[in-house]
């Protein structure tokens, strides 16, 4: 505080001011970047906590030991374009002429500067071998006279900063990456160079010598080429002749065309090697090359017999002939090399079992370095076994099977032999049985088998020459039948064509044999390797999607029916029968999800045509016909199954039953018949699928049919069922006797018939020359001419039609009674006879209830015949006579 004093007065004390004394402040120096890019700068900032009235001073060092160099700038922010160590401090003037007060120096900030010059590592070659030395050099582009120092990566090269080049010995340094940069001063440098990779290989390389031709033509030369892999322009090559220790060839011995290529005109053994670097690093020597001179003699390959096409098992000879060879003791060289078993052999026997198709050529060698040219090439082709094809692959009733046997390069003289396969369970193969007519072979390359009904396998082979040379057998080919027959049967469980992967599917072979094998086509999966198995069941490995044909084989040559089985990796499958369906049988198709659920609201397709799209989940066909055969598939919720073929076979057996309804009380006989027409015995008969007769009889006899006998009937024989047929039974008409005159009419008609019969007998006795011919089939003419019997064939046909009643429906019919009597007379032995025939027809018409006076019966008597010449006279033609009887109902009959 302070106060003022006057002569006689004093001021008051001022307000108190507090002065605090502290140490000098220290500024803080910061930089936005520590590296100055080429042609750029960085910004430095100097700051003091109490910044009022401060001015700033800046300083730079070019090295750690150099003095501070002031920088003119009094502002707290400074942009600097140079590298170095930077400091700052702040100061302000005292009051009343006191000296300026400065802060302490700030912290140091080091700034680096990147110069625009570019550093590059020079390394050649970049791939060296163990023991080789290479130079690596750092070059500064545009460096001028600057005394650069150098920094390397890896650090073990930084032995002397002034060295721009280093020698690298691969014994001490291994493969790695190299880069460098140059320093202009302590705080100015180039960017790092690009990385150069050096690879050191462990093994010394081996030179390779090649020749454009190893045979020197007369007066010519060949070119030898020496190379090292990997190649490099630094390699220099030396060529040697004879021994490796000899001196390299010079320009007097050879013509040096370019680096590594040399032209020579002298025969001999040649070598080479490469070298590079200082001191020279050499490769290993190359393999030797023998250079020959060509003699004018010509070599020729002779094939005996001259068969360029031979079959497996045939033998031919190849011989090398030297034209103009004279007494020279030639040795021989062959291609392929496996013929050179002995150089002195000019001929070799070739068996097609050991040698395959190929090109053969030879040349003769006069000495180690003189030979003929290679002969022209002879091509020998070993043909494979013939290929058998069968058509059709699947049998239908009545099909003929055509076998076709094809050979490569067919020619005249071949004969074709045809075989049926017989399974050999012991080694999973087949033996062969000649088919009829094939003992001496056929000229045609096809063979037709008629009446084939079951699955079977076939093979073929061909033969030619005398004695006959036979080719190998073809591979077996099969004709499949889906029909199940009694001898051998293949059954599938579950009984459907399509299955999901991982489903359990079993195949069962059933028949009169205990040892089987299950076969499959194609053979890419197995059931015990498809070998013979004891027992009857084989489980399929269904872990993979497949589509194959399966069948059973026994050691006695039996083949079962064949089935198609599809294993699907899908979400949905069609449920359809795996075996053919017989005409007339019922069949149900379904759709199934992988989780096993049977579906509803399924669309069914036949041959890609929609046939059912309602709410049902099954497709039911009550009586299958041939039109139902085809490809089926199902579709559910946008997912579609694959399609499968449903086969429909003809019924082999039919039921013999009446086509018209049978009247109650009548007798009826049902039978069973094969397609061949033979009536059968030991037949089972069923009514409404219930067995009603199973004894040794071949017929079902019903003596008096009743309404309970009406229904569906079928027969079964030897495991085969007929289609069922309906037998209808109609009731007997029983009118009321109290209101119908039918009994009277029937009695009247019978009386008239008796009278007419007596009249006919009387007339016949009077006129033996008269005869009546009935226009029927030749039944009467086939009678025994020696017979003298007279017989009467009477047939009664009754149809009773009621009287028309106006109160009844107009469609009601009237009852009419017909009677027919046939009389036949056979002449005595030794005399020409004629048949006497008479027919009587009675038509009785009943009047209405109102007309009860009379009933008329009209009887027409027909006497038909032709005029016959007899002793010069003719007998008049037969005449028709009509007899009318008046019938009046009487009460004596109870009418």
Q: How are the elements arranged and paired?
A:
Elements lengths: L27 E4 L3 E2 L5 E6 L7 E7 L7 E3 L5 E4 L3 E9 L8 E2 L6 E6 L3 E6 L3 E3 L3 E9 L7 E5 L11 E5 L6 E10 L2 E2 L6 E6 L6 E4 L3 E2 L5 E6 L8 E6 L13 E4 L2 E4 L3 E9 L4 E2 L6 E6 L3 E7 L4 E3 L3 E9 L7 E5 L11 E5 L6 E10 L2 E2 L6 E6 L3 E5 L9 E6 L8 E10 L4 E6 L11 E4 L6 E9 L4 E2 L6 E3 L8 E6 L4 E3 L4 E7 L3 E7 L10 E3 L2 E4 L5 E9 L8 E6 L3 E4 L5 E2 L4 E7 L9 E4 L2 E4 L5 E4 L8 E7 L2 E2 L3 E3 L1 E2 L3 E4 L5 E2 L4 E7 L9 E4 L2 E4 L5 E4 L8 E7 L2 E2 L3 E3 L1 E2 L11 H25 L23 E10 L16 E10 L13 E7 L9 E8 L6 E2 L2 E2 L5 E8 L8
Parallel strand pairs: 2-9, 9-16, 11-17, 19-26, 26-33, 28-34, 44-50, 52-60, 62-70
Antiparallel strand pairs: 1-3, 3-6, 4-5, 4-7, 7-8, 7-9, 10-12, 12-14, 13-15, 15-16, 15-17, 18-20, 20-23, 21-24, 22-23, 24-25, 24-26, 27-29, 29-31, 30-32, 32-33, 32-34, 35-36, 36-39, 37-38, 37-40, 40-41, 40-42, 43-45, 45-48, 46-47, 46-49, 49-50, 51-53, 53-56, 54-55, 54-57, 57-58, 57-59, 61-63, ...
Helix content: under 10%
Average of per-residue pLDDT values: 78
Number of DSSP strand runs: 77
Largest sheet: 11 strands, mixed
* Quaternary organisation of the protein chains: single chain
State Rg. Answer: 61 Å
